[in-house]
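ENTRY TYPE: paired fold submission
RECORD: A
CONTENT: sequence, then structure tokens
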Amino acid sequence: MTETPPTFTTAIQTTQWPKTLGIISIVFGAFGAMAGFCGVIGSAALGPISEAMAKFMPANKGGPSPADTFEALQKMQGWMIANSVLTTLVAILLIVGGAKLIKRQVQCRMMLLSWAALKILLAVIGSVLGYFSLQDQMAAIEKSGASTPAMSQSATKLMGLFSMGFGFLWAIAGAVFIIIWFKREKIRGEVSSWM
């Protein structure tokens, strides 16, 4: 009687984080690309929309005219379009990096780290643009000779700065996470073992 030797199948245990993080990256990248695309459309249409709105909006008694406020926004139109185009491109980089992560391709690490660096840079640019836009809008209010109390102007400016600060932190949160995640020794070792 012959015995067959026992066979052992070794199950290679794979981690789940690449699939999870890849899907999250693709979803956030898709939202970022849509937001960037909408930003391009909205910024490009700012002129005609602001002219139409200025005609239909009544002038504030003792306040800034809608035309002055829209004029302040139009000064930033070119920068807003450029920022939205770059946002779309960076979001596409996140989508591609997420897809490569799901497939466990080693290039995903550099793509996602590049995305993180570019995302932080765009957040800084967006915050600077937001600050200058806020300054122009506040100047439009002052130019109009509006009789708004100084406290109201200060509160408006403070709220604008707070919103920009919170928006900046929110914009870089994912990028900071990606940088920290892919700098971990365990993760770098696993990613380098991929094809």
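RECORD: B
CONTENT: sequence, then structure tokens
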Amino acid sequence: MAQVDNKRPPKFITGQRVVVHPAAGGSKTPRDAAIEPFAGKTATVQDYYYIYSPDRRQIFYVYTVRLASGDERELVAHEDELRSVIE
């Protein structure tokens, strides 16, 4: 599992249920098109990693999630592409 930086912990933890929610905003990229078919689907966080910005001033979390639907696919999503499931 990823080492957590005390400055900004991950928004989601392993085992947490989330909903795939493509990020809204400016221009669309091919990656956006790849994740959009899964919008609104429930998933479970399998693992997460962090990467630093080139200037090392920011941390970005990337999550591997497994879809809860019958196909059991795994996706890699940025933190802003996921929302917590409120139970």
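NOTES ON RECORD B: Residues 17-84 form one domain. The chain has one domain: 17-84.
STATUS: closed
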